[in-house]
Amino acid sequence: MGFIKEFKEFAVKGNVMDLAVGVIIGGAFGKIVDSVVADLIMPVVAAVIGKPDFSNLYVVLKGNVPAGTALADARKVNDAVILAYGNFITVAINFFLLAFCVFLLVKGMNALKRKQEEASAAPAEPSSTDKLLMEIRDSLKK
Q1: pTM value?
Q2: What is the pLDDT of residue 51?
Q3: Residues of the chain whose pLDDT is less than 50?
Q4: What is the largest CA-CA distance in the chain?
Q5: Residue 100: its pLDDT value, please?
Q6: Mean per-residue pLDDT of the chain
Q7: Cα torsion at 111, 116, 120, 125 (round to 10°)?
Q8: How far apart are CA 30 and CA 33, in angstroms?
Q9: pLDDT for residue 41
Q10: pLDDT computed for residue 111 by the predictor
């Protein structure tokens, strides 16, 4: 029973639960970033430079693949060695957007934290009762 009790204490600790919540929210945030890239950024890029389709960008390193063949069909060609870099470009864009969003979030949280620290660090103005008591104390010292 000691092992089960110990495991239960470990699993219910705040750190494990915080980690679980972080993973779940991180997964949802990743979907939001994917949507931002696919639904907001790529249409703007398409309007400026044409409809980019990064998923079919690849280079044939070995083998005979006809030009203009889709990536899925090019992979079916026997003995073809393909460097498919298009999906990497999309994932890299997603990563940089996610990193930028997290940076902005952390920057905002740090700014709020600094404001709270400044507010708590500033000495409060003593009340009129406190001022009167300080005057009485000072006069008694004299």
Answers
A1: 0.52
A2: 66
A3: none
A4: 102
A5: 81
A6: 82
A7: 100
A8: 5
A9: 76
A10: 92
Q: What are phi and psi of 64, to 5 degrees?
A: -110, 105
Residues 6+ apart with CB under 8 A from 46: 52
CA distances from 107 to 28, 32, 39, 100 (A): 21, 20, 26, 10
Q: Can you give the three-state secondary structure of the chain, one letter per residue?
A: CHHHHHHHHHHHCHHHHHHHHHHHHHHHHHHHHHHHHHHHHHHHHHHHHCCCCHHHCCEEEECCCCCCCCHHHHHHCCCCEEECCHHHHHHHHHHHHHHHHHHHHHHHHHHHHHHHHHHHHCCCCCCHHHHHHHHHHHHHHC
**What is the Cα 68 distance to its own chain's centre?**
36
| pLDDT recorded at residue 1 | 66
